[in-house]
Write a structure and sequence with these properties.
Alpha-Beta Plaits; 5 helices; 4 strands
Length: 112
């Protein structure tokens, strides 16, 4: 089975990564889980002190669009951690690929 996997690379403002990571762990990740987002891996990038990554899995491109629209438009996000987290981000880019189940499991194991 093929999965749609989104690799989000966030460039953070200087010296913001630790605060962003804490907010992600304490606020954003629990909220994403409540909204049934399948977060495969996340964390500070090894190559740059201002870069953070999030990898998420979806069943299809349509599901990705629907879930992200619903989540990012929700009061949970908008009245929750959005403002604090967005203030720490300079920009981000998404790369979306289709991967098989074995590759998805390997990405999930990155967290371990």
């Amino acid at each position: 089975m093929k999965h749609v996997v989104e690799f989000r690379s966030l460039t953070l403002k200087p010296e913001a990564r630790e605060k962003f990571h804490r907010l992600y762990l304490e606020k954003s990740l629990p909220l994403l889980k409540r909204w049934n987002m399948d977060v495969l891996a996340y964390g500070p990038s090894l190559h740059d002190e201002n870069t953070y990554y999030v990898i998420r899995r979806f069943d299809s491109l349509a599901q990705r669009e629907q879930m992200e629209d619903a989540f990012y438009g929700s009061d949970d996000w908008r009245q929750g951690p959005r403002e604090a987290m967005v203030a720490l981000i300079e920009n981000y880019i998404d790369v979306v690929l289709e991967l098989d189940g074995a590759a998805v499991q390997e990405l999930r194991d990155v967290r371990s």
